[in-house]
Specification:
There is one protein chain. With about 160 residues, this protein is α/β, with parallel strands linked by helices. The chain has 5 helices and 5 strands; from the N terminus they run E-H-E-H-E-H-E-H-H-E. It is globular and about 60 Å long. The model is unreliable at about 135-140 (pLDDT under 50).
Length: about 160
């Protein structure tokens, strides 16, 4: 059935819910698990590129210092992501599931599909936040992208109801 499961998670409550579902499935099927975190500016808590008050580079020293602060914030964001992945890998390993992890910057949908192809995934587990209507039309949806471009089966986990 499924031997290699790719689960894409972020550091939100939905990410924890998705991880739990993927881990239970991997354990039940004795499948390998690849945990993916995509570094994206769209993720809650990610540093945002600073823009000067005028929108123009009027003071190069100020702009360079601002960008340096942004770079440090991004490095911290990356480090937090790696710690997050390591802790989830440990949880899965302790549950008896052979587990790997990776963290990659980029557009989440594309990164997920490319990793699924390169890792030869049988199944991708992703979440869906429940955006609909104009929000999904204009912003798109990672789960929708994955459903249409994945090289394998896809399980979409909906956000838990309150």
């Amino acid at each position: 059935m499924f031997h290699k499961i790719l689960v894409a998670i972020d550091r939100s409550p939905l990410g924890e819910h998705i991880f739990g579902k993927a881990l239970a499935l991997a354990k039940a099927l004795e499948a390998e698990l690849m945990i993916l975190h995509v570094l994206s500016a769209d993720e809650s808590g990610s540093p945002q590129i600073p823009v000067s008050a005028t929108g123009l580079m009027t003071n190069l020293t100020l702009e360079a210092a601002t960008f340096e602060i942004y770079q440090k914030q991004w490095q911290e964001f990356e480090a937090q992501g790696l710690a997050f992945l390591q802790s989830h890998t440990q949880i899965a390993t302790e549950a008896g599931v052979k587990t790997e992890f990776t963290q990659t910057p980029g557009y989440p949908g594309r990164v997920i599909c490319e990793l699924a192809k390169n890792w030869s995934s049988d199944l991708i587990v992703v979440g869906r936040r429940g955006t609909s209507g104009l929000s999904e039309l204009f912003l798109g949806s990672v789960s929708n992208y994955v459903l249409h471009h994945a090289p394998c089966e896809v399980l979409v986990v909906h956000a838990p109801q309150p």
